[in-house]
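User: Structure please.
Assistant: Input sequence and predicted structure:
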Amino acid sequence: MPTEDPRLTALLDVLSSLGTEASTTDRGDLDLLDTSDLVHRMNDEDRRVPDAVAARSAEIAAAVDGITERFRRGGRLIYIGAGTAGRVGVLDASECPPTFGTDPSMVIGLIAGGEPAIRSAVENAEDDADAAGDSLRELGLSALDTVVGISASGRTPYVVGGLHAAREQGALTIAIASNAASEIGAVADIAIEVVTGPEFISGSTRLKSGTAQKLVVNMLTTLSMIKLGKTYHGVMVDLLATNEKLHARSIRTVTELTGTDVATAARALADADGSVKLAILMLSTGSSADAASDALRDADGILRMAIDALNRN
């Protein structure tokens, strides 16, 4: 009779305690349902996610304030995660430059297994407790930075090790988990534990857990960027016009926020070297590009403050 593996026994005990791994008795008939019923059943499960995120509003707000404060001092936001959680972080990081005009080094996504893991599973990468810390040190992590560890189970060794390494460097640490009393939550300065419960397909944490992770990281970067002045009247004003659609959006943004016509908006954008924020400031105050640029710098890039300052002069 084979000897029982104590490590496997311990892992099975851990999995049985996680809500994200739990099975429910009301889903045994999924393979018997028609497509319409499946759609409704899955959508009913997904409806629970926003409420679970809302229950962690205080922790999310604290995280946003911490991230913003460090951004203002030149710090970075670095996501670490494995599998779906890692891809969520990489996705959010990659979308910040075109959306908010940020330098690619401002928000970074690290995934267990590196670049290949973005598209394909890399075996055992998430079990390497030292890999994330090594990557963070290679990035020159400092106390100005924020490290956000994402793990549905809340116990992924890659993330646990990375958060420990980040704390050693004095960085702000934030954990996003889908289970309460998580291991990464205990390590981090701020624990955002969004309890999403059993998945529609047991253990498939790319579903509700992944959705919750996406909602939370959306808030961490979007709300931080709002506080940094990257939006004005709820509109992106630091976007980069890297294609025809974004160039058209830039012109539309300037026309909508200044009340000018398309031709005038296009000329202002050209004079502003494509900067939507600068073009709006010039048209709103009648200032030259140089004067508007100086005002934006003095206002720490916050358009509303720069408009008020120039209109007072």
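The longest strand covers residues 146-151.
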